[in-house]
Design a protein that fits this description.
alpha+beta, 24 helices, transmembrane, 6-stranded mixed β-barrel
Length: 734
């Protein structure tokens, strides 16, 4: 409510501001409005008590509604009743009890699942929440294992001494577990504070990501379910880490444990790749590095896979972000809120009625107007054969729905005494700008604008809702090159008889078109008549005017230059449009900006998650490489003892790190491409004309980062080893 209040008397009314402006009514409470009510012989006067905020969904499609007082003493056959429950009760049980007591069939009861899920009362397992929990668990397990292995390695001699003085296996196991459990208890409050801080940071952009409208998040609530799940995930992780670490400690002899020698169990195993032939090719230091890398298969696999994991996550997440960005832009372009101002002619008027060309030219000349796009819709009837109907069940369900059954007398109608069917559909004449923009939505064929302006070539959009098998096939069998026959009223009448196909004495014109392209969606269309529930046909404005004789435009999109979305410009457009009876002007500039902000916020949200995952993977890579090198400190001491210089030693270690980077880069490219293909196949059916792209810059970035990571991790460790004396390195007892 912007001004005033909701109606409480029978002669009071509340209306949205944009509706009042198009009615030419002063948007002030107390104004009297005279209505000619449908089906009533007399007019009725209402007192305007409230001005409502514009509702984007209705406003974008030109649906005008008013709110009256609900007289609770009257009986209503089709009343919608909204019920609010105490959040502390069993809401699902209460809903069932009320429906049972009032003898209401379950099909007439609709739950607010979004709210129930947020309250934890939906009693449904959220697959997204489970997937996120699983990913978080795996990442936590890998990171904890990497960090704890290094911590244990540094105290390995202490565990060896404990075993030597009589500590049992169970005591060692419980000691490891209690150590991790203590760290978990310390980390829980830190994690909660960090999680709440992150939630607070993201709350400014998350308010309109998961709801149907913009929501200002004022309070951050810690869900017990999330709290409990995080503890369970980490508890399971530390149990697994404890068992893995215990196994590593247990398999070493007492002497090896005290000396921190982890290589006893691998020195007799078969190496991953034989490197003897490299002795004559490579310098001695690099030859030693390769032998060290390939002799321990487990260490090699762990390091390479950890580096690949982060890289693959980054590549696939970046591809997902690209698909999401393209989808958001296409959804915005094909929504009803894809322009700053929209002029529509009220449905039900004759199709010859519209904004004339001279008025459109005047709008183009207004200061601040950047572009004007024009559309001419007409209502047609497409002839189909039985073999053209791919999904009969779809049309059966549509024909049984109230609007198509009562108003149109069916969307798909069989011709009497014939094998042909009539499909009621909308035909649009697009100008050159819109035809050019439609090229990005082509699924099959191509759009040749110059050819469409001269020949009867059509673009079609076919509905393909999800069926009972969770597939989305086209509801009709039409392909590029097919001929389609359309008929429409010569006089442009849109009365009830035309809708119900009862206008037997009317004159029709029949035209044949060739399907030049099939598109996923139309940039702009009308919700009236058949709308997007039927096959939509687009032809050039030039051809439509030629075959119909209608010269005026019924749908006009107006975009303005930055900084010109003002009330003054809106009033100027409204003044010009009102010269045509039945014209409405929609100011969608604010709604359009909100959609852009929503798209930006959604991408920020996705990229934030990508960065966090990549950062965690980065830390894990450092841990694994460091662990591999630190575990061989005594070996490095022996190499230094036989005379290798510090410079050669540093080159040997960094070469090892760069080798890890090269191998991981090769696998990252393979896994990244595989992940992209799998993701594209999974998401593709639900996207608008998606394109599979390979961002070579991202792959190049990953290759460089992997090599630098390997180099940096080994360089840091090499400096640490160099600071130790040779004797200290060989003994590795600190």
């Amino acid at each position: 409510m912007i001004k005033g209040r909701f109606p409480v008397k029978d002669d009071e009314i509340a209306i949205e501001e944009w509706v009042l402006k198009n009615m030419g009514v002063n948007p002030e409470p107390g104004t009297k409005i005279n209505f000619n009510l449908y089906g009533k012989k007399t007019n009725k006067t209402y007192i305007l008590t409230g001005i409502l905020q514009d509702r984007p969904r209705l406003k974008s499609s030109g649906q005008m509604e008013a709110i009256l007082n609900l007289n609770e003493n009257d009986s209503y056959k089709n009343a919608q009743v909204y019920v609010k429950f105490d959040e502390n009760t069993d809401i699902n049980k209460d809903i069932q009890n009320i429906a049972k007591d009032l003898k209401i069939d379950n099909k007439y009861v609709r739950k607010n699942n979004m709210l129930l899920e947020s309250l934890g009362s939906s009693k449904k397992i959220d697959p997204t929440f489970l997937l996120i929990s699983l990913v978080a668990g795996v990442v936590s397990l890998i990171v904890i294992l990497g960090i704890f292995n290094i911590a244990i390695l540094q105290r390995l001699s202490e565990y060896g001494i404990m075993r030597a003085v009589g500590a049992g296996s169970l005591q060692i196991l419980m000691l490891l577990f209690y150590e991790l459990l203590t760290l978990l208890l310390i980390s829980i409050p830190i994690g909660i504070v960090g999680g709440l801080a992150g939630a607070k940071f993201l709350s400014s952009i998350a308010g309109n990501l998961f709801t149907e409208c913009k929501v200002d998040i004022k309070n951050i609530v810690l869900s017990p379910r999330v709290f409990l799940m995080s503890i369970i995930i980490n508890l399971i992780s530390i149990i697994i880490v404890t068992l893995i670490t215990y196994r590593s400690v247990k398999r070493l002899t007492l002497i090896d444990s005290i000396r921190k020698n982890l290589n006893t169990d691998i020195k007799y195993k078969k190496v991953l790749i034989k490197t003897n032939f490299l002795y004559r090719i490579l310098p001695f230091s690099k030859y030693i590095s390769l032998r060290n890398i390939f002799r321990n298969k487990k260490s090699f696999y762990m390091i390479i896979l950890s580096m690949c994991l982060g890289s693959t996550i980054f590549i696939v997440s970046n591809f997902y972000a690209e698909l999401t960005a393209a989808q958001i832009n296409k959804e915005a372009e094909t929504s009803k809120i894809n322009t700053d101002y929209k002029i529509e002619i009220i449905p039900g008027t004759n199709l010859s009625v519209g904004i004339p060309l001279e008025d459109i030219q005047e709008i183009k000349n207004l200061e601040g107007v950047e572009e004007v796009k024009t559309i001419q819709p007409i209502y047609g009837r497409m002839k189909l054969k039985k073999e053209n109907i791919a999904e009969p069940l779809y049309f059966e369900q549509i024909n049984d729905s109230p609007y198509f059954k009562e108003v149109l007398n069916g969307l798909l109608v069989k011709e009497p005494n014939s094998d042909e069917y009539i499909l009621k559909n909308d035909i649009y004449g697009y100008d050159d700008k819109l035809l050019k923009e439609m090229k990005k939505y082509v699924k099959e064929g191509q759009i040749d604008i110059e050819k469409m302006k001269k020949e009867k070539i059509a673009i079609i959009a076919i509905p393909h809702p999800m069926n009972t098998k969770h597939l989305s096939p086209d509801v009709v069998n039409l392909k590029v090159g097919d001929k389609i026959t359309e008929s429409f009223r010569k006089d442009g009448d849109t009365g009830e008889e035309f809708f119900r196909m009862e206008d037997t004495n009317a004159q029709f014109k029949e035209e044949e078109f060739t399907v030049g392209a099939i598109v996923e969606k139309l940039i702009d269309s009308s919700d009236y008549y058949a709308g997007n529930n039927s096959v939509q046909v687009v032809i050039s404005n030039d051809i439509l005017q030629k075959i119909s004789g209608f010269k005026n435009y019924r749908l006009i999109d107006i975009n303005v230059k930055p900084g010109y979305n003002s009330e003054k410009l809106y009033n100027q457009i409204l003044k010009i449009a009102k010269r045509t009876q039945g014209a409405t002007v929609l100011n969608l500039s604010n709604e359009k900006q909100k959609i852009k902000a929503f798209a930006t916020n959604q991408l920020i949200f996705i990229n934030t998650i990508v960065i966090v995952l990549f950062a965690i993977s980065f830390l894990n890579i450092i841990n694994n490489v460091s662990y591999s090198l630190i575990s061989r400190v005594n070996e490095f001491g022996m190499i230094r003892a036989v005379g290798i210089t510090n410079k050669e030693f540093r080159k040997m270690i960094t070469f090892e790190g760069m080798t890890y980077g090269i191998f991981s880069s090769i696998l990252s490219v393979i896994f990244g491409l595989t992940g992209q293909v799998i993701l594209f196949k999974y998401l593709g059916p639900n996207l608008i004309t998606p394109k599979f792209t390979i961002a070579w810059k991202i792959y190049l970035f990953i290759i460089i980062v992997n090599i630098l990571l390997g180099f940096s991790a080994t360089f840091i460790v090499s400096k640490r080893v160099k600071r130790m004396s040779i004797v200290e390195s060989i003994s590795t007892i600190n």
